[in-house]
Structure formats: C-alpha cells, structure tokens
Amino acid sequence: MPRDPNQRAKAVVDLATGQREPDPVPTKDPAAIARGKLGGVIGGARRAANMTPQQRSESARKAAVARWQKERSA
C-alpha cells in the first residue's frame, strides 16, 4: 500500500471495486528460518565458551536486570 493518503485511498477503492488485485503476502523460506535458529544457538554457546567466568557472570547479571526492568514497565 502506498504511504501517501490520497494514493492509499485510491488503492483501497480500486481493491474494493475489483479494479486491482491485492498484493501477494510474502512467505518466509523455511530453510532460511532453520539456518537462522541454528546460528543463534551456535552463537550463544560459542560466545559463552570464549568468555571468562567473571565476564559470564557480568553478562548474566545485566540480562537479569534487563528482564526485571521489562516486567516492571509492562
């Protein structure tokens, strides 16, 4: 859909009257989704393996604070 209000209104009218076909809904590639999930799993483990125990503790502390802040603001 166009961003301009006038063009958007014309597109809506064209769709309603059948003068224009709706845009196809884009689908996600299942293989790409699987690769992205795999990369996330590998990345976290590899990052943790390269950190010192003190760095892991600090990272976990920051994550816990972020989680608590998110729950309070909701």
List low-confidence stretches: none
SSE series: HHH
- Summing up helix and strand content along with how strands pair, one would put the structural category as mainly alpha
Q: Helix fraction?
A: over 70%
Shape: elongated
Mean pLDDT: 88
**How many individual β-strands?**
0
Using only CA atoms, what is the Rg? Answer: 23 Å
Largest sheet: none
**Fraction of residues in β-strands:** under 5%
Roughly how many Å apart are the termini? Answer: 32 Å
SS field, number of helical segments = 3
Notes on the structure:
With 74 residues, the chain is mainly alpha-helical. It has a domain at 48-74. Helices cover 74% and strands 0% of the residues. It is built from three helices and no strands. The protein has helices at residues 5-17, 30-50, 53-73. The radius of gyration is 23 Å and the shape is elongated.
Topology:
Layout lengths: L4 H13 L12 H21 L2 H21 L1
Can you give keywords for this protein?
single chain, 74 residues, mainly alpha
In short:
With 74 residues, the chain is mainly α. It has three helices and no strands.
